[in-house]
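Why show two proteins at once? Because comparison is the fastest way to build intuition. When a single record is shown, students tend to memorize it. When two are placed side by side, the eye starts asking what differs. So, the first record is below.
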Amino acid sequence: MRFIKYILIPAAIIGTFIGYLYAPVKPAQNIEWGVSFSPKQAESLELDWREVYRSILTELNVTHLRLNSFWSDLEPTQGEYRFSDLDYMLNLAESHSKKVILVVGRRQPRWPECHIPEWGKGLSLEEQDERVLEFVKKIVERYRGNESIVAWQVENEFFLDSFGECPTYDKKFIDREIQLVRSLDDRPIMITDSGELSPWIRTGFRAEILGVSMYRTVLNPRLGYITYPHPPSYYSRLNNFVKLFTRHDKLIVSELQMEPWGNPFIGTDSTEENYKSFPRERFAENLHYARNSGVSEVYLWGVEWWYYMKEVRDIDTFWEQAKEIWN
């Protein structure tokens, strides 16, 4: 009897839950597709980032954007701000009637995750936290009048302490950030999490929008390239379960993998190396996977690489496939 009580019953519960997560869901219809864009990533690929950005808005005709506000770029010297580049992107998005999620905070998309100016790295953690809050306040107050912004993303995958070079993962700090943004503007707040490596509970109850990554093939330092076993239904199924305990109203895919996992960097890797984690056919496969997840708003990750492949390596496969999404 003890065997049944302590082994078989828990195993049955776990098996039932896994079966629930893996059961198919209805594919999403009329998905709102967007992209995440980083000028710094475009520059690292030796591209003119403004040319890339304009092409995203006009040639691809992307309707939804997720943009960064890197602290290291916008306040390179303490108290001296350089807003011209972000002004340009947001004003152009507004003039083209695009919808923008603007990321604020210390931890934002793209390595090393925490984008801290050199002067800030010498501060104590307590002092740095206060400067981050000042910076977030400055950003929200400056851009809350921009009608293209539909949500504020506070930090990026904040609790994913296994990835990135960051000084803190203290929940009290991100809660202060969220409270600050709420006090300054009434647009929804989005918090993001790893779609594959987290149960989403800590993020889901903190915001109106929960954003999760959707990665298929990654490079593990020990195992090499690995593909996650999750079926597309996993995301909607887990979301339905998590919502029993959280406050969020909406799930979106904040990062759908649409570029290679670099080894060490996609701009210096050979095309053959890039294709190990993201071959040509993977573009259409991942779009199909996202549709079958049942999630109705999806932001693609890798638009800078599509442009790079077209302009530098004369491979327009990915850029041309992207055109079909919005056109």
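Second record. Ask yourself what differs from the first in the token line.
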Amino acid sequence: MNLVASKFANLIWTVLVLGALVAPRLAQAQTPTDLYNFKGGTGDVANPQPYGVMVQGRDGNFYSATTGGGANSNGGIFVVTPSGAETLIHSFQNSEGSTCQPGFNLGKDGNLYGDCYFGGAGFGTVYQATPAGTLTVLHTFTGGADGGYPNGPPIQATDGNFYGTNGGDNALGTVYKITPAAP
């Protein structure tokens, strides 16, 4: 065996040994810590589905929305601190939307942007919510050329506008654009 082949074999052997020592440590499972368990009812929300869709605000807290619970049994927006304190900050009203989708996108302005599958004129809404829970409906879908039934929060693009998709005219789909300022 020549010198180059010997050094290469030693290098491979070293990588394999180190990999065998490090890999088990990386593969160890972590134990999650429950921060908060939802109670439902008028003072809390329920059913944040799909599970785990949250955004971290500029204040370090975690925000999402649910389809159940709240003061109107229509879901709401909640905040959870990193230490596990949960607060219902807004209960959805039918005029704002229903079957509001969990999750938001955090806007450059620090506000939360989300949508509701139903509500408004019946075909869903896009809204802005402040971290304090003040909600402004930015658009109510009509089910016509602007589509309807949005199913996921809009994203903010580099031009400052928000973009999303919905069921669209004739249920074929629409990509929409909306400004972050209320009309």
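One difference worth noting in the second protein: The mean pLDDT is 80.
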